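Example 4.3 (complexes with small molecules)
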Amino acid sequence: MLNLRQKEVIKRAHELNVRFVRLQFTDILGNFKNLAITINQLERAFEEGILFDGSSIQGFTRIHESDMYLRPDPDTFTIFPWRPKEGGAVARLICDIYTPQGEPFVGCPRYILRRVLAEAEAMGYSLYVGPEPEFFLFETDERGRPRKETIDTGSYFDLSPLDRGEDARRDIVIVLEEMGIQVESSHHEVAPGQHEIDLHFADGLRAADNFMTFKLVTKVMAKKHGLHATFMPKPIFGENGSGLHLHQSLYQNEVNIFADPDDEKGLSALARHYIAGLLHHAPALCALGNPIVNSYKRLVPGYEAPVDITWSDRDRSTLVRIPAAGGQSTRVEFRSPDPAANPYLIIAATLKAGLNGIQKRMSPGEPIQESAYELSPEERQKLGIRNLPGSLREALDCLADDPVMREMLGEHTYDHYMKAKLIEWEVYRTQVHQWEIEQYLGNI
Ligand code: GLU
Ligand code: MG
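Answer. The structure with magnesium ion bound is encoded below.
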């Protein structure tokens, strides 16, 4: 039996003359995948789910237990505005993955996030997240492949003609809004060819869905402008990298419980415990929020990305920052993640870290007052400041040592994730890089 919401979606799809429905899901490593069905299969998709072979999807299942079901979430229905409408429009639905036994699949990142959100719910909290993704636009060659030149030499908040990305950015924002995703603002970022589009805050699950959709739309729109959009965290040596800052707050009965007007910084005790949880689990969080070898080229001093495990109510070099907006807009900004991250896993992991901080009543200590980059090793030691991991390998070791984060992922996902990432690290580690040739070949 179809429920009311599912029936509404089917009706809406017919009204919009939908012919194809893309069933989308995200694999463990954060890749967006899809399978197209025709409109006449939509009812069956809602009723029974659509069978697919999970064994070919990164980190999903072993070959002998490969059958999986995609179950579309009716709340994610939207049209792809850039696809042709003649002959029938294209809609999409984001799916949860189920086993043939009708159980949620433990390797489905959306399920992992749902699980932690339910844990928060049981404690009386709802999570809201505002993602701030940054990305680069590069030139393409005659075959549409990315070239090494960025499309402009603009910098922070520049206007056209220095900002050559404004038309692509405009189209990205328009399409996102047509798809029901609210955008707060957009601008040229500090590095040449670098841009940022801030998504309006949404509940944890919706924020992760929106980020996946944002990435897809950005790639598609860039291509329409003859450009290549990349979410690689540090594409250019010596320039700022791209972050995915996550603004987070907990609500209870529609009231922001991170806010406390009587506190000198406007922060509740609960918000401080949450921050402490983020700081405590920060090294393991990097394994999920900074998931690729290149992520660690961004987490270096001097480029507005965090290096140390610190918090502050002003400085942008700290891991957690409290933006000036107070009252109902009080939130913590977690600044280490980058846009290569799987948003379901990093949002689940940060929430779990925060909840653990609340349960154990952890204290974040005092916020630091000066730029974290300027602290000497002695000052660091005096203040008990720890560093973020310096490489993917270090971060993976930190994840292995963090039982709370491992349990949050579950054994299946932890094992598959670790295996894939350790291979990635090993392949990288054994390469001979251009820098080594230049540094050593002639001199040693
Ligand atoms: N691009 C910087 C980063 O890597 C952040 C710049 C900003 O504060 O917006 O996180
Ligand atoms: Mg920015």
